[in-house]
Design a protein that fits this description.
Elements: H1 2-8, H2 13-19, H3 24-27, H4 29-41, H5 45-52, H6 54-74, H7 78-104, H8 112-140, H9 145-148, H10 150-164, H11 178-200, H12 204-226, H13 240-270, H14 275-281, H15 283-303, H16 305-320, H17 332-359, H18 366-397, H19 403-437
Helix pairs in contact: 1-7, 1-8, 4-7, 4-18, 5-6, 6-7, 6-10, 8-13, 8-14, 8-15, 8-17, 11-12, 11-18, 13-16, 13-17, 13-18, 13-19, 15-16, 15-17, 16-17, 16-19, 18-19
C-alpha cells in the first residue's frame, strides 16, 4: 500500500497542477515530499520497533498513513496537499521496514535471495501499477479518490495486523540519536531542493541550499563517528562491496523513479492522452519488471549479486537509448519495447543490489545497513523527481508550446536519465568486480531494517 501510494499520484500530476493552479515543478513536491518523509523515518524504524514493539509500530504506521490519506483528499491548495503528503510519508515510511523486521523473523539465511525477490515485487512494480491505478480512478472519479481509495485498504490492513500478527514485547534500546536524525533529514531536504532549483533556474538560493545540505551532511558524518549510539554506523562504507552496492542502489533508484514520473507526463504532454489511456500505455514496463523481478532471486544465486545487478543496469542503458532518439511521431511499439527493456532492467537490478550489500556484512551489521540502504533508495527517487521535473519544466518554458517544442524538452530530460543509467552501469561493474575479489558472507540473515539509534 505504501509503495503503491508513492507512485499512484504520478499520472495525476498534470491534473493536480491544473486544479490547484500551480506549475509542474511546484506540484512535483507532492511526490518529492512523500519520498523525503519516507527517507526521514526509515532510520528510526528499527528503534521504534524495539522501543514500542514491531506489531504495535506497524499498526500505528498503517493508521497514520490512512488518516493522512483522508487529509490529502480534503486538501484545498498545493501547499496543504504537499504537507499532508509528507505526513502520509511518515506512516508509509514505517510500514515497509517494520514489515521487513516481522518478515525477517520467519526467514532464514538460505532463503535470503528469494525472500528479497518477493519483497522486491512491490518496490519494482509499484512505479507501474501505481500510475495505472491512478489513471483508472481519475477516469472514473476526481483526483481526491487516488487518496480515498487508501481508506478501506488501510482499515482492513490494520484490523488484519491486529488479528494475525503475533504480539511482541518492547525491548530495551539505546536513546534515539536526535542530533544525527535532524542533521541528516535537513541535509536531504536541502540537497533535494538545491539540486531541483539548479535544474530549473540556478540562483543564489539554490547554491545556498546545496552548501547547507553538504555542510549538514558533513556535520552528520562527524557526529556519527563520535557518538556512542549513532543513527547510522557509517563505518560500513569502508567495505568496498557495501559501498559499491549502496551507490548502485542510489543510481538505480533514480532511474526507476525517473521513469515513474516522466513517462506519464510524456504521453500526456506530447501525445495529449487522457489519464486512463496513459495508464494503459505504461503496461509494458510492468511486464518487463514483473518477469525480471521473479528471475532476480535465481539469477543472484547462480551468477552472484554483482553480476546480476550489472546485467540489469545494462538493460537499463539499452532501454534508455531509444528515448533520446525518438520523436513525436515514433510508433508506440518502439516506445513500448524500450519500456519493456527498461522495466526488465529495474526488476533485475534493484533488489539484487540490496541483497549483495547485505550478504557482504556480518549478521550484527545488518541492522545498521538496512535502514541506510532503504533511505538511499528513497533519496535517489526524491532527487531524481525534483531535478528531472525541473529540467523538463525549464525546457518547456524555453520552447514554443507546440508538440515539437515539448518533445525537445523531453529529449533533453531523457538524456539526463540516460546519463544516470550509464553511471549506474559503471557502479554495477565496480560492484561485480569488488564482489569477485571479496566473496560474500553466507551467514547473513534476511535483512531487517533496524538501526542502533
Amino acid at each position: 500500500m505504501s509503495f503503491l501510494d508513492a507512485t499512484i499520484v504520478n499520472v495525476a500530476l498534470r491534473t493536480l497542477a491544473a486544479d490547484l493552479r500551480t506549475s509542474l515543478d511546484a506540484i512535483q513536491w507532492v511526490v518529492t515530499a512523500y519520498l523525503l518523509a519516507v527517507a526521514a523515518v526509515i532510520p528510526i524504524s528499527g528503534w521504534a520497533a524495539r522501543r514500542f514493539g514491531a506489531r504495535r509500530t506497524f499498526v500505528a504506521a498503517v493508521v497514520l498513513f490512512t488518516v493522512a490519506s483522508a487529509l490529502c483528499a480534503l486538501a484545498q491548495s498545493s501547499g496543504q496537499l504537499i504537507a499532508f503528503r509528507a505526513l502520509q510519508g511518515i506512516g508509509g515510511g514505517l510500514i515497509m521496514p517494520v514489515g521487513q523486521i516481522i518478515l525477517a523473523r520467519a526467514a532464514g539465511p538460505a532463503r535470503l535471495p528469494r525472500v528479497m525477490a518477493v519483497v522486491g515485487v512491490p518496490v519494482v512494480l509499484a512505479p507501474v501499477f501505481g500510475p495505472f491505478a491512478g489513471g483508472v480512478l481519475l477516469d472514473w472519479a476526481q483526483w481526491q479518490w487516488i487518496f480515498l481509495i487508501n481508506l478501506p485498504v488501510g482499515a482492513a490492513a490494520a484490523l488484519a495486523s491486529l488479528r494475525l500478527l503475533s504480539r511482541d514485547e518492547p525491548q530495551a534500546s539505546a536513546p534515539l540519536d536526535l542530533p544525527g536524525l535532524v542533521s541528516v533529514c535537513v541535509s536531504m531536504v536541502a540537497l533535494t531542493y538545491g539540486l531541483g532549483e539548479m535544474g530549473r533556474d540556478p540562483s543564489a538560493t539554490a547554491v545556498l541550499a546545496l552548501v547547507a545540505g553538504v555542510s549538514l551532511l558533513g556535520v552528520f558524518v562527524a557526529h556519527s563517528l563520535r557518538a556512542a549510539h549513532p543513527l547510522f554506523d557509517i563505518r560500513l562504507y569502508r567495505d568496498q562491496v557495501f559501498r559499491a552496492a549502496s551507490l548502485s542502489s542510489f543510481l538505480l533508484s533514480m532511474g526507476m523513479y525517473a521513469g515513474m514520473v516522466l513517462m506519464p507526463l510524456f504521453f500526456q504532454s506530447v501525445h495529449d492522452t487522457d489519464d486512463l489511456t496513459t495508464a494503459a500505455l505504461l503496461v509494458p514496463s510492468s511486464a518487463g519488471a514483473a518477469i525480471a523481478t521473479q528471475l532476480s532471486g535465481r539469477a543472484t544465486e547462480r551468477f552472484g549479486g554483482g553480476r546480476t545487478v550489472f546485467y540489469g543496469a545494462l538493460l537499463g542503458v539499452a532501454g534508455g537509448v531509444p528515448f533520446v532518439l525518438i520523436g513525436a511521431n515514433t510508433p508506440y511499439p518502439v516506445i513500448a519495447t524500450a519500456m519493456l527493456i527498461s522495466g526488465a532492467g529495474a526488476g533485475l537490478s534493484v533488489m539484487p543490489a540490496m541483497t549483495t550489500a547485505f550478504r557482504a556484512l556480518s549478521p550484527d551489521q545488518i541492522g545498521h545497513a538496512a535502514p541506510q540502504l532503504n533511505m538511499v533508495q528513497r533519496l535517489g527517487g526524491s532527487i531524481a523527481t525534483a531535478v528531472l521535473v525541473a529540467v523538463l519544466q525549464n525546457g518547456m518554458d524555453s520552447h514554443e508550446p507546440t508538440q515539437a517544442g515539448t518533445m525537445s524538452a523531453f529529449t533533453v530530460t531523457f538524456g539526463w536519465v540516460l546519463g544516470a543509467a550509464v553511471l549506474a552501469a559503471w557502479t554495477a561493474l565496480v560492484l561485480a568486480r569488488a564482489q569477485r575479489r571479496e566473496p560474500p558472507r553466507v551467514d547473513a540473515p534476511a535483512p531487517a531494517p533496524q538501526s542502533r539509534a
